[in-house]
Amino acid sequence: MGLRAMGVTIDCSDPEYLADFWSEAIGFTKREGDGGPYITISDSGIDRAVNHLTFQKVPEGKSSKNRVHLDMFVDDIASEVDRLVGLGATVVSPAGDPSHLGFVAVVLIDPEGGEFCVVGRPEHQLASSDSTNS
Predict the structure, then answer these.
(1) Are residues 25 and 84 in the same domain?
(2) What is the pLDDT of residues 39-74, one digit of tens each?
């Protein structure tokens, strides 16, 4: 296989703002492009299958649920959700009962309404948290 990299492109109205949010959210340190119409962020110390995100300016707003979304796997869901909310994310659905492969997930939206999940195993979570229960 000749695959060298894997990235995700996200349509948005403000590539600059969304690139800032996601750079801080997932730790990408390299930035390319000026937002007209693209900005790509990459380069993190974490080994990952997705090694860059590109934000593409489009004229239309988001009109329905995402067909693709990002999952962020963490050790402490409550702490990560609190951090992301502080960056501008909004909790849409709190953690429920364990589901797929025993994971729990909190559904959030980024500043432009794009859904993503913070995912972890219940045994690694704090006993209670306002972030995952509200």
Answers:
(1) no
(2) 999 998 777 778 899 999 999 888 888 888 999 999
Domain-ending residue, one of 45, 60, 75: 60
Q: What are phi and psi of 28, to 5 degrees?
A: -75, 135
Eight-class DSSP state of 100: G
0.70 surpassed by pTM: yes
The size of the chain, in residues, is 134
- Which domain range does residue 49 map to? 1-60
